[in-house]
Amino acid sequence: MAEIQLGIIESRFADMIWETEPVTSSQLVKLAGDAFGWKRTTTHTVLKRLCDKGLFENNKGTVTSLLSRQQFHSLQSRRFVEDTFAGSLPAFLAAFTKGRALTQEEADEIRRIIDQA
Predict the structure, then answer these.
(1) How many whole angstroms separate alpha carbon 26 and alpha carbon 24?
(2) Are 30 and 78 contacting, i.e. CB atoms less than 8 angstroms apart?
(3) What's this model's pTM, rounded to 2 decimal places?
(4) What DSSP letter does each residue of 38-89 carry, written as one string?
(5) What is the pLDDT of residues 54-80, one digit of tens each?
(6) pLDDT interval class at 50 (50, 70, 90)
(7) How close are the terminal C-alpha atoms of the chain, in Å?
C-alpha cells in the first residue's frame, strides 16, 4: 500500500469520521462546521482528499472507512520503524524505553507479543 501522510487537520477530520462512521456526508458537514468552523465546500474537499488517499469511501453520500484507525496507525508505526530504525524493532524498543522503566504489566505485554510472534 502506498504511504499515507496526513496533516494535522486531515488527521483530526479522519478521527471524526472513524468515531462516527458510518456517517453521511451531510452529517460530516455539520460536525466539521461545529468542530472546525468549516463550510460545506471545505468539508467535501478534505473528505475527497482522504478518499483519494485510500482511507475512506464515500458511497452515495455515506462515508465509511477502507482502513480502520488501528490499521492506519499500524501502517504508520511500521513505516516509522522502517524509516527511523532501519526496520529494527529491538533498536526502536531500546530508544523508546531509554531513560524510562517499564512497568511489570508493560514488560509482560511485550513478552506476550513476542511469544505470539
Answers:
(1) 5
(2) no
(3) 0.77
(4) --HHHHHHHHHHHHHTTSEEEETTEEEESS-HHHHHHHHHHHHHHHHHTT-H
(5) 999 999 999 999 999 999 999 888 888
(6) very high
(7) 22
User: 111: which 3 cell numbers?
Assistant: 513478552
Q: Which of 117, 112, 15 is nearest to 72 (CA)?
A: 15
Residues 84 and 33: their CA atoms lie apart, in Å, by: 37
Number of Cβ within a 10 Å radius of residue 25: 15
- Taking residue 28's Cβ as centre, other Cβ atoms within 10 Å add up to 24
Residue-wise pLDDT for 76-104, tens only, equals: 888 888 989 998 888 888 888 888 888 89
Q: What are phi and psi of 23, to 5 degrees?
A: -140, 145
